[in-house]
């Protein structure tokens, strides 16, 4: 008797209504337009209504509180919290001032622009940000990004004013993109830069930054603007043939050892966190005094010289939106925006987890965006959250972002008072401060963990690392993102088709390769498509894999040799529980598969189709061709149905 006749006889027997009837009679899923309207109602209108209900008397106040969190937590702010924030802010400023000067030099700008970047962006962020510990200001990686990419458009030595205008315009674009990401909830764009890519990128950038500091450490005059390791090392070797003063190296290396020893002490004893935090500022003060008292600048020691005193100067008139490089400047802006957001959100979330509160990613994007937009209008370049300064801020016991406000005010006072003193600061000490911060960017343990966990992820890491090291920052990022996308595409267009077996005394069906103890049912072949999409990119491949699996079973060539030639294959059960989407190519592939099996007197059974997938099958009338009685809610229901049908036929015979 055929399986079809057995099925009708099994249905004729009194039995409870099969679960598949629930599947067949389900309502139609919502359309794309209905989903969009529902999303707007749920995520936009409902939130506005809730806020209006809570604060119906003053909707303006409710809106301001949602944009400026400082209006909420500011009411509960107490004096004992301010004491902690004051100490944390002063400690933060002691680290921020020398680092900001050094990072401005790395970005190809005058020292005061690094200090400006530590004033306005932190003040804006403190009003709009949701992180309590994140320390905002210039960072090494973004400074390198700007110097490497903007230098391709304009040489900072030949025309520093034009270079500065491009930097400010790129900063405006970076802030605008960050604000747009937050406004339209596009945070997933930041996730395109995977953890492995970020680890490799940071490590490569750290080495490039370190090599570029050899210019300041040796006091070299002739140096390349390129960032790849070959060009930098070549420039160093050629520069050493020119006259250079070893006093620069003596000063820089001596204080580098001092800062590293201070950091070592701070790690050994957490209570001495203030020693590594104060070490860079102490180094700057001592090195400046040594140069001033010994007139070392007359012996070839290179110094910072003029730092313009005063607060941030307006730079609105320096933004260029009609220049010849506008498209390239916008590209620089979006790259800096993504890198800055990735670093800031990663750092903020790590410390928020320690403190036990949740960081709002969209608010962080908005806060960072408006901080950089305001910064571009006040002579600042791209600012973001710094891991080293945030760690110091956390260790110093900060309670809120008031520590950022204290730091910004301290930097403002320094701009007015200390700029004359910093005239004699040797550039070698700035190089040593940047070099001391670089080990924190190289995560060796993280790289080893990625190697053990996922070799393909490690390949992404290596691509980002080598790309930054031997080509450019852009090439490194493109390689990392390109390999990540290639991996996703390959896994989508070449998915696996798993043969399933039943685990003993359960209704669970698992991959027979993963569970060798799983048993197959005679005459039935159960396959699972392990792909979220059955579409034009993989439909033919999946169909061919299914047919190959069927051919192996019929020829008795399966791995376990459980099914022999004498055992005729009567039913193929296709588990589609993993398939979330189906297009016309997928429907055509299923129709061809059904026709191929029908020509060999084999039934195609579909189990566990998702809501939208089954809706597509109904619209394509494939469920009529396959027959409704061959569609089941679960694999177990399908197997039990055909086992009962076979048992009934045997009893009748």
TrEMBL record:
<feature type="transmembrane region" description="Helical">
    <location>
        <begin position="272"/>
        <end position="293"/>
    </location>
</feature>
<feature type="transmembrane region" description="Helical">
    <location>
        <begin position="394"/>
        <end position="414"/>
    </location>
</feature>
<feature type="transmembrane region" description="Helical">
    <location>
        <begin position="247"/>
        <end position="265"/>
    </location>
</feature>
<feature type="transmembrane region" description="Helical">
    <location>
        <begin position="369"/>
        <end position="388"/>
    </location>
</feature>
<dbReference type="GO" id="GO:0016020">
    <property type="term" value="C:membrane"/>
</dbReference>
<feature type="transmembrane region" description="Helical">
    <location>
        <begin position="124"/>
        <end position="146"/>
    </location>
</feature>
<keyword id="KW-0812">Transmembrane</keyword>
<feature type="transmembrane region" description="Helical">
    <location>
        <begin position="166"/>
        <end position="186"/>
    </location>
</feature>
<dbReference type="InterPro" id="IPR018045">
    <property type="entry name" value="S04_transporter_CS"/>
</dbReference>
<keyword id="KW-0764">Sulfate transport</keyword>
<protein>
    <recommendedName>
        <fullName>STAS domain-containing protein</fullName>
    </recommendedName>
</protein>
<dbReference type="InterPro" id="IPR011547">
    <property type="entry name" value="SLC26A/SulP_dom"/>
</dbReference>
<dbReference type="Pfam" id="PF00916">
    <property type="entry name" value="Sulfate_transp"/>
</dbReference>
<dbReference type="GO" id="GO:0008271">
    <property type="term" value="F:secondary active sulfate transmembrane transporter activity"/>
</dbReference>
<dbReference type="InterPro" id="IPR036513">
    <property type="entry name" value="STAS_dom_sf"/>
</dbReference>
<dbReference type="InterPro" id="IPR002645">
    <property type="entry name" value="STAS_dom"/>
</dbReference>
<dbReference type="GO" id="GO:0015293">
    <property type="term" value="F:symporter activity"/>
</dbReference>
<dbReference type="InterPro" id="IPR001902">
    <property type="entry name" value="SLC26A/SulP_fam"/>
</dbReference>
<keyword id="KW-0813">Transport</keyword>
<feature type="transmembrane region" description="Helical">
    <location>
        <begin position="329"/>
        <end position="348"/>
    </location>
</feature>
<feature type="domain" description="STAS">
    <location>
        <begin position="534"/>
        <end position="642"/>
    </location>
</feature>
<feature type="transmembrane region" description="Helical">
    <location>
        <begin position="192"/>
        <end position="211"/>
    </location>
</feature>
<keyword id="KW-1133">Transmembrane helix</keyword>
<keyword id="KW-0472">Membrane</keyword>
<keyword id="KW-0769">Symport</keyword>
<feature type="transmembrane region" description="Helical">
    <location>
        <begin position="458"/>
        <end position="485"/>
    </location>
</feature>
<dbReference type="Pfam" id="PF01740">
    <property type="entry name" value="STAS"/>
</dbReference>
